[in-house]
Predict the structure.
Amino acid sequence: MKVVVVESSRVMARGVASLLAQRGHETAIFTDSVEALAFVRADENVDAVLTGLETSPLDGFETCWALRLLANAGRPLHVIAMSSLAHARSLSEVLDAGADDFISKPLVAEELHARLRAAERMTRLQRALWHQAQRDLLSGLLNRRAFFTRMAGWNEDPCDEGSIGLILADLDHFKRLNDCHGHDCGDEAIRRVGSLFDAYARAHAGAAARFGGEEFILALPGCDAGAIQSAAESLRRSIATISFMSSSGVPITLTGSFGITALQRGETVETAIKRADDALYEAKHHGRNRVRVKSVGDEERVAPRMTAAS
């Protein structure tokens, strides 16, 4: 497991990390609770947090509450509070604040390892359940609901003042593909394009979802207009390189139309997606297999084609 230790005493934190390392756990230690929260927020591979109650700038109760908000937003995270004040009031208050478990200091190695084994079972189950609830089974991308949840978290983050690039894409002539070659071909097209969007989202710290039947959406935080357009053109060209055989031996190729915009600070996700959808309609109307841009207050315009060098 990847475990974060938050403890005001660096000596104590190193002692806890040493106990964890004995059982092969990967650890990161912090004496500053705000820095610890930023680390956990940025690294979704963190499975558990061990936090003292006597931390600063946020005390342990506030830290547990902030961690619980992260967990409630859709990521498996087990929070264990540590304190030498093991009386009933501390225990009830820290559990009410969002901790999953409580352990008394000084830590006993076997008790700590037993509690982490329980945490591992819980996070493994939570991860499986969250994956099933958030993923589209065919493409492997986020489903529509999970995408909106992810966007809400980004849009409400007070530390992020930049815009979020939105790319809405639709496969061209998809109904004809299903009608002429069967739904197996359509399913394969969804899987191939889904893989492209997933790879791009992972490489650029974004979020990709299957938004409708043959419609995909990609969000890229911190992207300016040029970067959004470049990303859309890259994906458009990649879709055009997809080729596979139908069950009857007919070669299948694909193209996609794209509408792009940027979600500005203060506007709703739905408003920005509607703008991207308008741009996508223009791309379809003007011949498909192209990118259209629509910005706040701007007239639609055809995005210039990227050169081979770009």
